[in-house]
């Protein structure tokens, strides 16, 4: 993978970019109010795959690992 993104109902995204990524950790605090986020990965040719929405509980959630 060359990019890992966390997006949700809030404007903006959390992103990790690099070469040959195999895992990453991103904060999800900006999505807590909307109650969900989604993880998207992108390969070196621009192909993308994404998760179903991930429900965020009201308790603080520090990060999502992909």
The whole-angstrom Rg is 12 Å
Q: What is the average per-residue confidence, as pLDDT, rounded to a whole number?
A: 90
Helix content: under 10%
Q: What structural class do helix, strand and pairing data support?
A: mainly beta
Helix count, per DSSP?
0
Mind explaining what this structure looks like?
The structure is a single chain. This protein has 66 residues and is an all-beta fold. It has one domain (3-59). The protein is 0% helix and 42% strand. The protein has no helices and seven strands. It has strands at 3-8, 14-17, 25-27, 36-42, 48-50, 54-55, 63-65. The strands form two sheets. Strands 1, 2, 4, 5 and 6 form a five-stranded antiparallel β-sheet that branches. The protein has a two-stranded antiparallel sheet with strand order 3-7. The radius of gyration is 12 Å and the shape is elongated. The model has no long low-confidence stretch (mean pLDDT 90).
Identify the notable features of this structure and list them briefly.
about 70 residues, mainly beta, five-stranded antiparallel β-sheet, 7 strands
């Amino acid at each position: 993978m060359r990019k890992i993104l966390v997006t949700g109902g809030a404007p903006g995204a959390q992103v990790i970019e690099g070469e040959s990524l195999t895992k990453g950790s991103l904060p999800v605090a900006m999505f807590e109010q909307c109650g969900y986020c989604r993880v998207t990965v992108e390969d070196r040719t621009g192909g993308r795959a994404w998760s179903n929405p991930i429900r965020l509980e009201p308790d603080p959630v520090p990060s999502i690992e992909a």
